[in-house]
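Lab meeting, item 3. Inverse folding demo.
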């Protein structure tokens, strides 16, 4: 699919995707891809096919006769390819189109974490393995999907002694890896790319630092590149977690407040939200002190995003693909809202002659900590 300087490439196949046949690409009507921090990413393809066309049956058969039909969506903007999605088909729906004799086939899929969420491995032992080693062992199963692990050692390492405790697998690979991430105050997600057919399986702290993406400009006449952008302040979400650490001798729980302090998530706003409530994390008393502190830090960091922005932009004016889980600057919104934000969610919608994105931004307070925003 080519339109107005934008080229869309569709690859599909079992496990190893190949370029889709030309008739399938020509039948493609629209593409929607959603990438979000904290939840599974997904995609949706809509095809318009004639009721008598062999594609009417071929597209349905292909998605149901292979264990996993993998789909890779690549968009080329300004000569630079960007992998928007790499996942597997999970659902197909067939409906009538507006024109007589045609049908609309909607193919819905999720990122490759869907493959990790099928088979349970309850009871599989991991003797003398720290958390990050267990994660690497689990991710090694999915190398055939081009999944490259990027595992950051946990801040508070707890190596179990086999004579006292042997950790065992609980649930599916995805549920267990997510459980280990939550206990360490980390996140886990699979990011498509950088090259088509490869993915980065990231297990580590949520990083809100680095080089920001080109700024989103408001009210700057010819330099404006945002169609709409609205801000809101959630004043009741800020929470101070209180973890309980049990004294091994007296068996008495000791309360410990945990502030939001993380070098990898520096504050983006000068005026943070006021703490409105204290949350008691009572289940941490059974954990080791290091695990309890990790859970408290994760809960504190997740409750500070009081300033949020929702907007949309036309990619031909913005000039590149806005990506989730990265920083972006905002200019022209006023002193309280200008500055750097963390891109929490991005939804890309592509039709012939049109490429738009809607997005969600978050940060921890008003008034930017950065003296300026790069263009």
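The presenter then showed the designed sequence:
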């Amino acid at each position: 699919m080519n339109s107005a300087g934008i080229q869309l490439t569709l690859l599909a196949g079992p496990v190893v995707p190949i370029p889709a046949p030309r008739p399938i690409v020509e039948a493609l009507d629209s593409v929607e891809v959603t990438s979000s921090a904290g939840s599974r990413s997904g995609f949706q393809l809509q095809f318009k096919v004639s009721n008598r066309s062999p594609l009417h049956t071929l597209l349905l058969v292909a998605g149901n006769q292979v264990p996993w039909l993998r789909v890779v969506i690549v968009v080329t903007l300004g000569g630079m390819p960007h992998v928007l999605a790499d996942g597997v088909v999970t659902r197909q729906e067939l409906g009538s189109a507006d024109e007589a004799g045609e049908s609309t086939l909607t193919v819905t899929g999720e990122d490759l974490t869907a493959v990790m969420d099928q088979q349970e491995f309850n009871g599989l032992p991991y003797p003398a393995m720290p958390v990050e080693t267990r994660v690497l062992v689990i991710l090694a199963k999915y190398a055939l999907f081009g999944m490259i692990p990027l595992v950051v050692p946990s801040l508070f390492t707890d190596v179990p002694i086999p004579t006292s405790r042997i950790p065992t697998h609980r649930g599916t690979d995805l549920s267990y890896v997510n459980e280990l991430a939550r206990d360490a105050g980390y996140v886990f997600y699979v990011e498509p790319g950088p090259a088509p057919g490869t993915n980065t399986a990231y297990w580590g702290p949520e990083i809100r630092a680095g080089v920001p993406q080109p700024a989103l400009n408001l009210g700057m006449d010819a330099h404006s590149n945002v169609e709409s952008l609205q801000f809101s302040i959630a004043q009741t979400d800020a929470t101070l977690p209180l973890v309980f650490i049990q004294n091994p001798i007296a068996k008495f729980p000791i309360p410990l407040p945990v502030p939001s302090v993380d070098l990898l998530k520096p504050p983006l706003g000068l005026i943070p939200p006021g703490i409105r409530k204290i949350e008691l994390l009572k289940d941490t008393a059974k954990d080791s002190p290091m695990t309890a502190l990790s859970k408290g830090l994760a809960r504190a960091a997740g409750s500070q995003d009081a300033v949020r922005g929702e907007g949309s932009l036309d990619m031909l004016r913005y000039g590149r693909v806005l990506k989730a889980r990265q920083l972006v600057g905002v200019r022209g919104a006023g002193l309280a809202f200008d500055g750097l934000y963390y891109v929490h969610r991005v939804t890309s919608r592509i039709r012939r002659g049109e490429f738009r994105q809607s997005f969600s931004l978050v940060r921890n307070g008003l008034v930017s900590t950065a003296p300026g925003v790069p263009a």
